[in-house]
Specification:
The structure holds two protein chains of two kinds.
Chain A lengths: L3 E7 L2 E6 L3 E6 L13 E7 L2 E7 H4 L12 E7 L2 E7 L1 E7 L13 H6 E7 L2 E6 L1 H6 L7
Parallel strand pairs in A: 2-10, 5-7
Antiparallel strand pairs in A: 1-2, 1-8, 3-6, 4-5, 6-7, 9-10
Chain B lengths: L1 H27 L4 H21 L2 H18 L7 H23 L8 H9 L6 H22 L26 H28 L3 H25 E3 L1 H4 L2 H12 L3 E6 L4 E3 H22 L3 H6 L6 E10 L2 E8 L6 H10 L5 H6 L2 H6 L22 H10 L3 E7 L3 E9 L3 E10 L2 E6 L3 E6 L5 E6 L2 E6 L2 E7 H4 L14 E6 L5 E6 L1 E10 L4 H4 L4 E6 L5 E5 L1 H9 L7 H13 L2 E7 L5 E5 L3 E8 L3 E4 L2 E6 L2 E6 L10 E8 L4 E6 L1 E8 L4 E2 L6 E7 L2 E6 L1 H8 L9 E4 L5 H13 L2 E3 L7 E7 L11 E8 L11 E3 L3 H16 L1
Parallel strand pairs in B: 2-4, 9-18, 13-15, 24-26, 31-32, 31-33, 33-34, 34-35
Antiparallel strand pairs in B: 1-3, 4-5, 5-7, 6-7, 8-9, 8-16, 10-14, 11-12, 12-13, 14-15, 17-18, 19-20, 19-27, 21-25, 22-23, 23-24, 25-26, 28-29, 29-30
Helix pairs in contact in B: 1-2, 1-4, 2-3, 3-4, 3-5, 4-5, 4-6, 7-8, 10-11, 11-16
Classes of the chains: A mainly beta, B alpha+beta.
């Protein structure tokens, strides 16, 4: 099992995004808000000539928005031809998954349960593996 | 004639292009009969056309080529390479001449005979090579002529390269590759913009600025070229339609005009090819089923000639194409019957359907409303195929039809990659782009010819006699609420949708026109139904492109994507039979109403333009004088006065108001009022009673002169200063025209008792005699004292009555 994971901090929890999904990690300088969109869509940011839709991971999970830090890092992922920047509290190293994602009895909590593929063991301990396409659908999905 | 000529040039060139390949193939194998036929047809057509246009030289050339080729076709002559060369030389010459015709230049004399001679001599192999150089200098000559103005055409061979007439070479490229190149160029443009900003910040640096400017120019060119690689103007598609329409309408014995709008909209080449067939089918359908025969049209009070209208707009990643006809509309009854007959729906299902749902039956497979299967449509290949084809390319199709008024098909086509002309506007401190094709006009709210009004919660704006709903962008996006006071600071962008609905969009400010590259947006953002795409500003910041049709549909229930509910809602509204009225505050600030149909427009004039003296009150608007009413309620404001211009269809009066309040529908009854003759009655608008002006009384009271009334003539003594300076204005004010001198018979003649009346040849029907002496007046019955104004006017009136009685 040599899946690589981008380890990051989302809503004060350790989380991981499959590195194969991630094109790059960028620092977001400026976000152009898009009025009328759900909260978790922060707006657009430009990466070269591409416009990325910026998603706040915490809000997308239905959790409280984390305190904004100066260092706004985001993982760039492509889902169905569209580019998204997943804003995380902090992005760490790329590490190896030491296990298959597994479910935990009792679940991970309301928000996490929907967007997580399961728990994986990493060198830095157990981490939730985020499913990017469920994440970007946002917390609204159940309502719809 | 010019159009025909342009058609001729275009047709010839098209055939040249098409036969280009044939010619090469024929050259390779002169005995190829099929190629020979193609080329024969070409020269034959050219010959025919030339005769019509009087191009003797072209005709002679093509005739000679035709002769030679028909010899070959008849088997009397072998097509050898010499003949091929000679024919090719003639075709080249035809092409050059066509170019000259198009450019409006004179093609230099000479050279034709050699070319024709070359056709004859089969033993002269060298002819081709001898002819070609002959043709070239001639070509050069025409270039040179163009440069020099109209110089003589005698000398030859200017040392210039021939016009690039080489066969266009093409290669096939995967679209992906093009996309990638396009993306690369876009990135380059952004990098350039970034660099440019940094250079500006760093101050002037001549050593860098020069090359940088050059880079910018090159980049702009490359970008334009890349864009062209994929795009084609819709005109290319449109240009083939008039012919199709003409042929079809001839076949069906109908007369149809075509009208195009939005030919400049660019569409992916592929997409153009994809919609060609569906569009053809819609046209067939419209001409065959929609547009009536000339007789039936006349009977229904329509113009004999039907109209087929094509309107294209670009909105973000979509092209909307509306094809509408002014025919009889979709026959829902028959469509429903067919659907039942074909077993698609049960009768009860059909009965429950709304009209709109029935219209959509047209897209069901296996339906055709024509009773007889004509050669044009109704061959079983129906609109279902059209819909399938449109949907296959990711588009959608919808239909709107009104019985007796026509049907329109709304096509939406995706645009994988597009550059659109946009207007950038600001709201809530952010910029947004609006496709410029929708923008009809930009007006400032503060300008005096813009009036705001509210009907319920809907804000309306009246501009240039049009009342349209008004939306605030900030409000639509939910970023700021606008209080009433703020409206004046807004800029209004009048938006006309492809469906011809108009609304006003209030924005904080309008920035600029820009060409923007539109990129698709994430589905979650798309769901807001506010945006059609995103684009990057020059500084690399993203900007959203507004989806106006969708906004209009959601906010105003107008536009292309009408939903079923909305259509049904409309039906209910029309069933209620409301009379539109305009509410205003009179000079006493009391609310009154006037029927909207009577209001021609709202004018704002300065106080100086109004003249009041005693009972007479008039206002001057745009150089015309109008009777002013409504003054009995109060004083006119000091500087600017607002006037309603009312019309009874023939004459006009103006009515002074303090403020125009609103438009409303008067759906209740009018309770008649006896006390005030100028009031038709009172009606309930909302919760308040509002007096409604009595139009009849207004106009009746004013005895307003009808403009169309026959003007009676009056002859006045032409040798009296008094008559000219004092009498004449009075007579004219009474509605008479001053008759010309002797020659004309006048209705009334005014004579001065003291002067001897000169003998005239012409007569007058009645005579009024004026005297200077008040005492003699009235003594002999028909003489009036010259300053007895009432008496004179009464006499003039009497004459008028006698005349019109």
């Amino acid at each position: 099992m040599t899946d690589l994971l981008l380890q990051c901090l989302v809503a004060d929890r350790h989380a991981a995004i499959p590195a194969s999904d991630v094109q790059s990690v960028i620092e977001i300088e400026e976000i152009t808000p898009i009025p009328g969109t759900p909260d978790f869509i922060l707006g657009l940011t430009a990466l070269r000539s591409q416009a990325l839709t910026v998603i706040d991971c915490s809000l997308a999970l239905g959790l409280e928005k984390s305190v904004a830090e100066d260092d706004q890092r985001a993982a760039v992922v492509e889902v169905e031809g569209h580019l998204y920047a997943l804003l995380v509290d902090a992005a760490y190293d790329v590490g190896e998954a030491l296990s298959q994602p597994v479910a935990v009895p009792g679940g991970f909590g309301a928000g996490w349960q929907r967007a997580a593929r399961g728990m994986v063991e990493t060198e830095s301990g157990p981490t939730l593996l985020i499913d990017t396409s469920s994440l970007i659908a946002g917390p609204m999905e159940e309502a719809a | 004639m010019d159009d025909l000529l342009a058609d001729f040039v275009a047709e010839t060139r098209e055939m040249l292009e098409a036969s280009g390949g044939e010619i090469v193939a024929w050259e390779a194998d002169p005995s190829d009969r099929a190629r020979l036929d193609t080329i024969f047809r070409f020269v034959h057509t050219v010959k025919g056309n030339c005769g019509f246009f009087d191009f003797p030289r072209l005709e002679k050339l093509s005739h000679a080529a035709e002769d030679a080729l028909s010899e070959c076709r008849a088997g009397r002559r072998e097509a050898d390479s010499a003949l091929v060369s000679a024919v090719l030389a003639i075709i080249d010459r035809i092409s050059e001449m066509t170019d000259a015709i198009e450019a409006g230049e004179e093609f230099p004399e000479g050279g034709d005979d050699e070319l024709i001679a070359a056709l004859q001599g089969s033993d002269d192999i060298v002819v081709a090579s001898a002819v070609m150089p002959e043709a070239q200098p001639a070509n050069d000559q025409s270039d040179a002529d163009a440069d020099r103005g109209d110089d003589s055409d005698s000398e030859s061979s200017a040392p210039k390269p021939a016009r690039a007439q080489a066969v266009q070479r093409s290669i096939r490229l995967p679209v992906d590759l093009l996309d990638e190149v396009m993306k690369g160029v876009s990135d380059m443009v952004l990098a350039r913009n970034d660099l440019s900003r940094r250079l500006r910040e760093a101050g002037e640096q001549p050593t860098i600025d020069g090359p940088f400017d050059r880079l910018s120019t090159i980049l702009a060119d490359v970008r334009a070229a890349i864009t062209r690689m994929r795009m084609q103007r819709l005109e290319h598609l449109f240009s083939s339609l008039p012919r199709l329409v003409r042929d079809l309408s001839n076949e069906l014995g109908k007369q149809v005009m075509v009208d195009f709008e939005g030919g400049e909209v660019e569409l992916d080449r592929e997409m153009i090819e994809m919609v060609r067939d569906p569009l053809t089918h819609i046209i067939r359908n419209a001409i065959d089923h929609g547009i009536e025969g000339p007789g039936e049209r006349l009977k229904n009070g329509k113009r004999e000639i039907g109209l087929l209208r094509f309107a294209a707009r670009q909105a973000g990643n979509q092209i909307s194409l509306v094809v509408s006809d002014d025919g009889r509309g979709i026959d829902t009854g028959r469509l429903a019957d067919k659907a039942v007959a074909a077993g698609l729906y049960s009768q009860s299902e059909v009965d429950r359907m709304s009209d709109r749902r029935k219209h959509l039956l047209i897209f069901e497979p296996g339906l055709s409303t024509a009773n007889e299967v004509s050669s044009v449509s109704g061959r079983g290949v129906g609109m279902d195929v059209v819909r399938a084809n449109i949907e296959r390319v990711g588009g959608s199709i919808d239909v709107v039809s009104k019985p007796g008024e026509g049907a329109s098909f709304h096509l939406k086509l995706p645009l994988t990659l597009s550059i659109i002309a946009a207007l950038t506007v600001g709201a809530g401190g952010q910029r947004y782009a609006i496709p410029r094709s929708y923008v009809e006009e930009i007006v400032f709210s503060s300008s005096s010819n813009v009036e705001f009004a509210t009907a319920g919660d809907r804000r309306l704006v009246t501009f240039r006699d049009k009342r349209v709903p008004c939306l605030a962008l900030g409000d639509i996006l939910g970023i700021d609420e606008i209080d009433d006071a703020e409206w004046d600071s807004k800029t209004l962008v009048l938006i006309r949708l492809a469906s011809d609905d108009v609304f006003a969009l209030a924005v904080d400010r309008v920035f600029d026109h820009e060409d923007v590259v539109v990129k698709p947006i994430a589905p979650a953002v798309m769901e807001t139904r506010l945006y059609a795409g995103t684009t990057l500003l020059d500084d690399g910041r993203p900007m959203m492109l507004l989806d106006l049709p969708s906004i209009a549909t959601n906010r105003l229930h107008m536009g292309e994507g009408r939903t079923t509910e909305v259509v049904e809602e409309e039906v209910i509204e029309t069933g209620r039979k409301a009379v539109p009225i305009m509410l205003f505050a009179g000079l006493d600030d009391r609310k009154r109403a006037v029927r909207l149909d009577m209001v021609r427009r709202i004018d704002t004039v300065s106080r100086e333009a109004i003249d009041i003296e005693g009972q007479r009150a008039q206002a001057v608007i745009d150089g015309s004088v109008f009777t002013l009413l409504g003054l009995e309620f109060g004083e006119l404001p000091e500087n600017r006065c607002r006037l309603l211009r009312l019309t009874d269809g023939e004459s006009e009066v103006v009515y002074a108001v303090n403020e125009v309040l609103d438009a409303a529908d008067m759906d209740g009854e009018i309770i008649p009022s006896q006390d005030d003759p100028l009031i038709e009655g009172v009606t309930l608008i909302g919760d308040s009673l509002v007096p409604v002006l009595d139009g009849h009384a207004l106009f009746a009271r004013q005895r307003v002169q009808r403009r169309t009334q026959e003007v009676l003539s009056c002859r006045i003594p032409d040798d009296s200063d008094w008559a000219r300076t004092i009498l004449e204005p009075l007579v004219e004010a009474a509605g008479y025209r001053i008759a010309a001198d002797d020659g004309e018979d006048a209705d009334v003649e005014i004579q001065l008792a003291e002067t001897v009346r000169p003998e005239r040849s012409a007569s007058a029907r009645s005579v009024i005699r004026l005297t200077q002496d008040p005492h003699t007046a009235g003594a002999d019955g028909d003489t009036i004292y010259r300053y007895d104004r009432d008496g004179l006017l009464a006499a003039l009136k009497q004459a008028r009555l006698g005349r019109t009685a």
